[in-house]
Amino acid sequence: MDHAEARAEMAAAFRWAAREDMHEGVANHFSLAVNDAGTEFLINPVKHFSTMKASDLWVVDVDDPDSAKGDNAPDPTAWGLHGSLHRHVPHARCAMHVHSTYATVLASLADSRLPAIDQNSAMFHNRQVIDEGYGGLALEDEGTRCAKMFQDPSVRTMIMGNHGVLFIGETVAETFMRMYYFERAARNYILALQTGRELRHLSEEVAERTAQQIEGSDGADVAFLRGIRDVLDREEPDYVQ
């Protein structure tokens, strides 16, 4: 199988992450399971996000380390972090890891929680986990440790202390929208902190209700990704190649 549509969605996500400056050049990875068991997944090789094409993506098998080796192969942290996620977290069909600016600033604070201070941050209320145990590059041991923190299916956002941020989901659209809105929410929070003024926190009741309402917005993620692809179809149509 060539997984053409899955590849195109992934390539669009890479291109848009670059446009939003949520990339580290040729570092960081997005992955997507392409078999029912979730053991085979698409992932990016060492290539700049802004030039990623559908055909560039590798298919890696969590049961075959050699599938992640070769010319221009994904770097070892791709196998360590994403291989562990697809091996140990069945509901992590898609995973996106970035060191985006505001999320990483948040991950660098002693208190790395994203509080519900606006509608965007409410989306992550009681749905985030903070990794307090950064132990170096996300090689296999570190990746396995992180994967174990995603056992609660309601938690799909990890603020990786001293590192960055990691999102999981069922689809490219769902996961990318989560990543996009987290970065915007983190930006608003960091800017609000910089005012030095008291923050207006949402109540537990309102924050939870808002999170549930956003989760119930069927099709919003699909429409968001479709909008991104409409722009790319006009301006960077080679992403689907």
What does this structure look like?
This protein has one domain (4-240): Class II aldolase/adducin N-terminal domain (L-fuculose-1-phosphate Aldolase, 3-Layer(aba) Sandwich), CATH 3.40.225.10. The protein is α+β, with helices and mostly antiparallel strands. 41% of the residues lie in helices and 13% in strands. The chain has a seven-stranded mixed beta sheet with strand order 3-2-1-4-7-6-5, with helices on both faces. The longest helix has 23 residues, at 172-194. α1 (4-19) packs parallel to α6, α2 (76-88) packs parallel to α5 (140-147) and α3 packs across α6.
Throw out a few tags for this protein:
L-fuculose-1-phosphate Aldolase, seven-stranded mixed beta sheet, 8 helices, globular, 241 residues, 7 strands, alpha+beta
How many domains? 1
Main beta-sheet strand count, sense and barrel state: 7 strands, mixed
Total strands: the figure is 7
Shape: globular
Quickly name the level 1 CATH class.
Alpha Beta
Strand order across the biggest sheet? 3-2-1-4-7-6-5
Specify the number of helices.
8
How do the helices and strands line up, and which of them pair or pack?
Layout: H1 4-19, E1 29-33, E2 40-43, E3 58-61, H2 76-88, E4 94-98, H3 101-107, H4 119-122, E5 128-131, H5 140-147, E6 157-160, E7 164-169, H6 172-194, H7 204-215, H8 220-235
Parallel strand pairs: 5-6
Antiparallel strand pairs: 1-2, 1-4, 2-3, 4-7, 6-7
Helix pairs in contact: 1-6, 1-8, 2-5, 3-6, 6-8
Short structural description:
By secondary structure, this protein is α+β, with helices and mostly antiparallel strands.
